Amino acid sequence: MSPDAAEVRRRTRELLAAHPPATTDRTDFLKARFDAGLAWVHYPVGLGGLDAPRSLQQVVDAELAAADAPDNDPRRIGIGLGMAAPTILGFGTDEQKQRFLRPLWVGEEVWCQLFSEPGAGSDLAALATRAVRDGDDWIVDGQKVWTSSAHLARWAILIARTDPGLPKHRGISYFLCDMTDPGVEVRPLRQITGEAEFNEVFLSGVRIPDSHRLGPVGEGWKVARTTLMNERVSIGGSRIPREGGMIGPVSATWRERPDLRTHDTHQRLLTLWVEAEVARLTGERLRQQLVAGQPGPEGSGMKLAFARLNQEISGLEVELLGDEGLLYGDWTMRRPELVDFTGRDAGYRYLRSKGNSIEGGTSEVLLNIVAERVLGLPAEPRNDKDVAWKDLSR
Amino acid sequence: MTATAQPPATPDLLYSQDEEDLRSAVRALLADRADAPTVIAATESDTPYDPRLWEALASGIGAAGLLVPEKLGGQGASHREAAVVLEELGRSVAPAPYLTSAVVATETLLALGGDDGPAAALVGELASGARTAVLAVPLGTAPAGSQKATASLDGTVRGVADAAVADVLLVPTAEGLYAVEATAPGVAVVPLVPLDLTRPLATLTLSGATGTLLADADASATAVRRGLLAGAGLLASEQLGIAEWCLTETVRHTRERHQFNRPVGSFQSLKHRMARLWLEVVSARAAARGAADALATGSPDAPLAVAVAQAYCSGVAVHAAEECVQLHGGIGMTWEHPAHLYLKRAKADSIAYGTAGSHRAAVAELAELPAP
Hints:
The structure holds 2 protein chains of 2 kinds. Chain A is an alpha+beta fold. Chain A has helices at about 5-20, 25-35, 55-65, 80-90, 95-105, 220-230, 245-255, 265-290, 300-320, 345-350, 365-375; strands spanning about 110-115, 130-135, 135-145, 155-160, 170-180, 185-190, 200-210. In chain A, the strands form 2 sheets. In chain A, strands 2-3-7-6 form a 4-stranded antiparallel β-sheet, with no helix packed on it. In chain A, strand 2 and strand 3 (about 135-145) form a beta hairpin. Chain B is α+β, with helices and mostly antiparallel strands. Chain B has helices at about 15-35, 35-45, 50-60, 80-90, 100-110, 120-130, 215-255, 270-295, 300-325, 340-350, 355-365; strands spanning about 135, 155-160, 170, 175-180, 185-190, 200-205, 210-215, 260, 260-265. In chain B, helix 5 (about 100-110) runs antiparallel to helix 7 (about 215-255) and helix 7 (about 215-255) packs parallel to helix 9. The longest helix of chain B has about 40 residues, at about 215-255. Chains A and B meet through helix 7, helix 8, helix 9 and helix 11 of A and helix 7, strand 9, helix 8, helix 9 and helix 11 of B. Chain B: Keywords: FAD, Flavoprotein, Oxidoreductase. Chain B: It holds the Pfam family Acyl-CoA_dh_1.
């Protein structure tokens, strides 16, 4: 029988009693929390969970926050938590789950995602990185791009082509790649902000043991779809306060700097303030649906809404600042561990938000997904589904 | 961040089982009595309102008394339930004096307080659906704006919605709020030709009319503001219903309609327009529920929640109706197809109880984002 809220609360208090946060090392506390099944309560017993309803995680989080317990910094290990973990849980062998989930959740091992390629972005299944079987290993050659955290990552989820003679979706396999392998080369990719938040990753003769394959040979696309679905359902867990997003700094500037106000910017600010508040409520409604066990399709649209809002609000902010908007904080090439919009200046926000409608699926691809999967509109005819990958034009 | 920037409580944005049951009952009734050909035919007659439909909705289902406490003869429900009724009325654009009588007039009277007296008695009659009342102000009046009151029971008010079918007119004057029988001597209700045939307008002329004084000028102004606030807040749910119908029908049409040997709904440029509209509709739902819940719980955040919902939902309903006409092609321009009913209602609704612009001005005030 799955534990109820009272049981989960009791276990959380037991953990806190046995490992007082004030006197326990951060990593030790996180390991103890994982072993107590309180990392992600909806995961299986023995893998950081209690087989409990996902909604009960709120009970754990509230108790731990009240006790000022350390968290596992989900921003830093977001790819591992949000994408690698659910995929390993869904498709991994027992050995893989035991080996990878605990250090992933604790944050001892950071993950990155080796999916996109220079020639395969929105059309991800067109990827060209090859994996060729060699005894108990696979030998991987190719190039990946837009890889955040690659310079910090210990492990990567990787998709590669294992049979070019099959149509593109069917010849792909899914691997767990050791980023410390000598064939892996990570190069910073400098972006329009001046920073190198992403990387290019070159794979040359990388040997991956077959025991690090996830799912059957040739079924990597099916596995990858699990990863991608989890990528886009990143919103919904947490409450956003009013003015919690990018509308916050621009509203604050408006209040503090009457000298900057114009009638035109006032009208645009009010329109965007209303839209930001409505997006906040839409996210809150989605969250309430998830807690009530009735997840709605709104999640597919939230990324679209936030991408557009971030871009419009940050564009307004630069303009509102006038002469100051002509300046930029710092063009030095840096390699940030976290992308934090709120701690930066308006010019950075304007430039970085241009990526919001591209990363994790372009807005155009997401609109197709909403149209076809939510509204049930017919797909456009396509001519790449039954043709061997090697015969497609490139 | 300012003191008013934080909402006092997180609104409940979902629908309860009771609300879904109410929706089913209202939807079934409207499907039976107010399908599109019936509504179109009614708007061309002298009597757009179907009294049997009103009776079934108001007293059969009990929708007219949702806002009214049981001790005054109502259902003792709240704005959340009334909002669901308005979503369904928006979906059918049926002419029914629900928003004007069961919401605005009723809320105005409730704001006067008191368990007995003429206002309480009238609330009971409105709750049963036996009689209807309208607030005698132009439909475009915003809750936050300054209300013009006639000096006394002499004067003219243009553009009063549903006045032609109202039994009682609630007239704000410099002396206070009067209840005037529509058939009283000195009362003339002259129908206008409205853009939206499904919510008729009339000019009200009072010359030496008599009525019952319900409240003094101060109490009247407060009550009228509350009535208009509820009207504006729940109008967002009607706009949501309009937008939902328009999107659903447009998706249905573009899946079936073939051009260039393909369903037109398979063309990416059209799919993206409908997907964007879907996102607007789900966002409008969150905004409308936010306003309904804030009104239902008497939240101090209600004026801001209403202003946000109106500033957003007006545009969504109009956009949805305009896309509906466009994506139906030539069919969308015909009188037979109901798309025009939704376009006319949506456009009229974008002015009713304040334009989006006037609600943004309210946001400027409430969220402390002052004009230059």
